[in-house]
Amino acid sequence: EDDGKVIEYLLKVLVVGDLGVGKTSLIQRYVHNIFNREYKATIGVDFAYKLIQISSNKVVRLQLWDIAGQERYGNMTRVYYREAVGAMVVFDLTRQNTLEAVKKWKADIDAKVRLQDANESPIPVILLANKCDMVQGSLNPSQLDAFCRENGFVKWYETSAKDNINVEESATYLVKKILETE
Ligand code: GDP
Ligand code: MG
């Protein structure tokens, strides 16, 4: 029934992964549609917002948390994770060790934040294989499928913040998954 009221969801989504994998670049591309080659290592936590119209009376205000410099320690405090309802774990397709670090990031998320449901389920997390513009054809889809099953990711995407590949698609998918849990 349509009583003219607009429902707005505020969703806190974390973007984690090793230093230099492209977290800030993906957020900048997604929110502002820009790519800036310049490397900027701010210290602290940055926020970015994106308003997504889901339907005529449903709006999502997506709050993206960028970890900006603290990723060098390989884990984050519980305060950072608090009330997050979804996450993106990013690795760099040109650096194998950043994929190995993905397991550690996923474990950190699962240990520090849970949904408020009866089972305290893990929050939905997607895996982003970034900088796909640099590595034509080196990706092994069935291997990444298996990796996602084993490590509890809802889905993976190859992305490029530079060439704007799958940036919007992956975020849209995650939001859809999050709304299924709400
Ligand atoms: P962060 O430390 O995870 O936030 O990574 P940044 O967003 O700062 O990116 C690190 C470096 O990788 C910067 O020089 C970016 O320009 C570059 N970069 C990020 N995403 C991409 C991408 O999709 N393709 C390419 N070729 N370079 C990227
Ligand atoms: Mg950054």
Helices, strands, pairings?
Layout (H helix, E strand, L loop, with lengths): L6 E10 L6 H10 L13 E10 L2 E9 L11 H4 L4 E7 L3 H17 L12 E6 L10 H11 L3 E4 L8 H15 L1
Parallel strand pairs: 1-3, 1-4, 4-5, 5-6
Antiparallel strand pairs: 2-3
Bound molecules: guanosine-5'-diphosphate (GDP) and magnesium ion.
Q: Please, could you describe this protein's structure?
A:
The protein has 182 residues and is of the alpha/beta class. It is 31% helix and 25% strand. The chain has five helices and six strands; from the N terminus they run βαββαβαβαβα. A six-stranded mixed sheet has the order 2-3-1-4-5-6, sandwiched between helices. Strand 4, helix 3 and strand 5 (125-130) form a beta-alpha-beta unit. Magnesium ion (MG) is lined by residues 23-24, 66, 68.
Q: Write the element-wise H/E pattern from the N-terminal end onward.
A: EHEEHEHEHEH
Mean pLDDT: 91
Radius of gyration, whole Å: 16 Å
Q: Percent of residues in helical segments?
A: 25-40%
Which strand order do you get reading across the main beta sheet?
A: 2-3-1-4-5-6
What fraction strand?
25-35%
Backbone shape? globular
The counted number of beta strands is 6
Q: What count of helical segments does DSSP give?
A: 5
N-to-C span: 19 Å
Structural class: alpha/beta
Low-confidence stretches: none
Largest sheet properties: 6 strands, mixed
Q: Which cofactor or ligand species appear? A: guanosine-5'-diphosphate, magnesium ion
